[in-house]
Amino acid sequence: MTDTFVVVGGDAAGMSAASKGKREAPEMEVVAFERGEWVSYGACGLPYYVKGDVDSLEDLVAVAPEEFREERDVDLRTGHEVTAVDTDARTVTVEPNAAAGGDAATDGGDAVGDGDAAGGNGDSFEQPYDHLLVATGAGAVVPPIDGVDRDGVFTFQTVGAGGAVKEFVESESPAVAGVVGGGYVGLEMAEAFDARGLEVHVFEMLPHVLQPFGADVAEVVEDHLRERGVHLHLNTPVEAIEGEGGRVTGIRTEDSESGETTTVPVDLALVGVGVGPRVDLLEDTAVELGPTGAVATDEYGRTNVADVYAAGDCAEVRNAVTGDPDFVPLALTANRHGRAVGATVAGDPTPVGPVVGSAEVKVFDLEVARTGVVDEEEAREAGFDPVSRTIEEGSRAHYYPGGSPITIEMVGDRGTGRLLGASMVGREGVAQRINTVAAALHSETTVVEFERHDFAYAPPFSPPWDPVLTAAKVLNGALGDAGSEE
Amino acid sequence: MTDTFVVVGGDAAGMSAASKGKREAPEMEVVAFERGEWVSYGACGLPYYVKGDVDSLEDLVAVAPEEFREERDVDLRTGHEVTAVDTDARTVTVEPNAAAGGDAATDGGDAVGDGDAAGGNGDSFEQPYDHLLVATGAGAVVPPIDGVDRDGVFTFQTVGAGGAVKEFVESESPAVAGVVGGGYVGLEMAEAFDARGLEVHVFEMLPHVLQPFGADVAEVVEDHLRERGVHLHLNTPVEAIEGEGGRVTGIRTEDSESGETTTVPVDLALVGVGVGPRVDLLEDTAVELGPTGAVATDEYGRTNVADVYAAGDCAEVRNAVTGDPDFVPLALTANRHGRAVGATVAGDPTPVGPVVGSAEVKVFDLEVARTGVVDEEEAREAGFDPVSRTIEEGSRAHYYPGGSPITIEMVGDRGTGRLLGASMVGREGVAQRINTVAAALHSETTVVEFERHDFAYAPPFSPPWDPVLTAAKVLNGALGDAGSEE
């Protein structure tokens, strides 16, 4: 008797699970349903497609549908939406999807109507499963702002959205772009619009962009954005997206101090205020969500219901620093957790592994990266007594030409001396350097231990004391002082 | 009663110890003796001075003598050579040094006569100590090759050597340089000579350059050197340095296979076949050397004799991967161990910390880096059963422009699954990436654990699975296969 492994969702987590499961257990039937036409694509590359660094949306695809079908022997059904799950009958309801298969640019290119544009045109059917993976991903949060449904207002829900934005930029020649939200996607899109010759305004309701990176690092990013001509509106909630004839014409904001209302004229708006897990499918099932709103999972990606797994951007993960469930919808986690579930389903129980919250983003000429717990309030909530220090160090030996400053905020726990996290920014050497801290977090290293790590040195690449070691040295001094003050 | 802390040697280890000791125990008298005039200099920068990237030798100095004297209150005596140690009387014999203080370019600019050119011109005296740090550093090994004392033949013993090489290049306009030894210094100098317009020949007696990096990485470096026009003579021991009128004219080699003798005409030769610890000073003392020939030390940098410490390039260190004493004469270790000894002497016992053997070098357009145990024979000697895999991965997301391949060899232990080391090479993202492995080695991470590390990802900086994670994944597969074969 042959087991059937059903996968819902055809991006990183789903297709990693399908591929791994089939490879490890070739006798298993593996059926993957994807409501759109795109599978296994790098959504992280969409800003670079709009910017012009990537020529074609097809370039973002890691593995083509035919390869899954023909080489990996996965029964991949694109244009098939799973609309219900019955965990008692162990079946899913599938609707062949009319909208998918059409023009990519219409596939979620607009904030409103995205995701439910599909009207079924085939007969729906029940697909039985022995193992089920829910890998429905995350969707852009659409804030309750008046006018968010106007023409020229975009979110980054899907691959199609990237196509729609680029098409709009090229066909409508907008002169001014408004970016709502100063997170990863917002700042990447600010860079993309700038590269396309648009004047760019970024609106952020918080005091700083890139909230998870902390104020010290964010300020360096903000200075750089301003240097590059981006208009930053911090502490500035967006009240409405104004328009004429259904088309966006401006972004109305309220100054958080004066309460004064201003409208910045724009020809295009990109709303990137975050993403939330897509868990609608599980609404009427016994599958439980966790405290973050994503699907609760154990160390093998199992939900509370037998043989039902969740992985990727719709699932919770355990944060190894806090020990708590976390919602960190990022590409590596999706790939890795999907792969682990595939192995487990195939009979080789494989932990999905915890995260430490590592993330990075390019903002114009800067590399910006973070890992662990940086925010002091978050640290306190996790039971730590955080001490933080920020340093600036050169990226190369002091005498070697071409270096530039790296700013590092590092956080440790006063009680245990444990390293909790770091955030950093600079023109070079940041994106990989953050992972030295990430590795240390996985091993629950103390700041003292980290300061003694033997890191490689050569004049073109760092000072003899690597900037992260200097940060640890300074933080360690502060942890000692803090201790002796008590 | 005030303690006296005597430091022998004014570079990284010695001056770090002196500064830290004085800062932590201001009442302590700190006397540092340096036989030359240069203190606290970045010898690693000498190739870049010759190349022209660094304008002046003074630029290599991290902290000037006046700053030690005036701001840090260290009694620094340059031009003072310590010629004997009496550990019973607790004194050192000091000779004011005539040669030092002269022209920097004559200070060790030649392979022969270096280091003992000094004839005393002042009265020698006995300096009592309560704590003694021997930080005499390492010296270039001068191989027993006929003609190594000719004019135009250089080693990189001292700061002055860098000055002498540059002066020779500028005043004598040599057309062809021969580099004897394909290690760090040899390849950095090959790049420097090439940048100065010289034709460059590199002679290496082993099958590959950069022996500690393993053959797979070395081959990538060798291809690149050839592409850049460097003439590589591998498996080629140098028999003699030929000359006319005392001046170098060629390098005579023997082909290791055919036994045939060839002479490559050169106008300048740089001998860089390695360094050895400078331990002459301790020859007639009770201070013991370790198995590597460097001074044996414990976890606090203490020798076997009470109150006598050793740190930096003359001292052994513990390798955290093998658990054995090791000789790893590099800048960070010297800085860190000196600082730890300074703290310990000042009353705050501070471990020097182990090393994991991290090192890196720029070779033309390549970043080359290694950490841990890469050589399989070395791994076996340390009691491991090594399994090694080499992968090639892109430095950026597959669709992001400008990426280039990174080659990674990773080694694990079949028995325990422990990660033992890695070596890597590429045009970008290597120099910092190696330290993710170094951090994992400090925590005795297994390959499986490392594969599950949550590393930051963004398309400009890596594929979603970082190349080191892919290497771990492949190695992990091999470790599993290896296990199941048994």
What topology, given as strand order, has the largest sheet of chain A?
3-2-1-7-18
> What quaternary form is this?
homodimer
Chain pair with largest interface: A-B, 68 and 68 residues
Structural class of chain A: alpha/beta
| Secondary structure tally: strands of chain A | 25
Total helices of chain A: the number is 11
Strand content of chain A: 25-35%
Integer-rounded radius of gyration of chain A: 24 Å
Helix content of chain A: 10-25%
Low-confidence residue ranges of chain A = 100-120
The N- to C-terminal Cα distance of chain A equals: 67 Å
Largest sheet of chain A: 5 strands, parallel
Q: How confident is the prediction overall: mean pLDDT of chain A?
A: 92
Shape of chain A: globular
Question: Care to describe what's here?
Answer:
Two copies of one chain form a homodimer. With 486 residues, chain A is an alpha/beta fold. Helix content of chain A is 24%, strand content 26%. Chain A has helices spanning 12-24, 46-51, 65-71, 159-172, 184-195, 215-227, 331-345, 376-381, 434-442, 447-451, 467-485, and strands spanning 4-8, 29-34, 75-78, 80-86, 91-96, 125-128, 131-134, 138-140, 153-154, 176-180, 199-203, 231-233, 238-244, 247-254, 261-265, 268-271, 275-277, 308-310, 317-318, 325-326, 359-363, 366-372, 386-394, 405-413, 419-426. The first copy, chain A, has a five-stranded parallel sheet. In chain A, strands 9-16-10-11-12 form a five-stranded parallel sheet. The first copy, chain A, has a five-stranded antiparallel sheet with strand order 21-22-25-24-23, sandwiched between helices. The termini of chain A are far apart. Chains A and B meet through helix 7, strand 21, strand 22 and helix 9 of A and helix 7, strand 21, strand 22 and helix 9 of B.
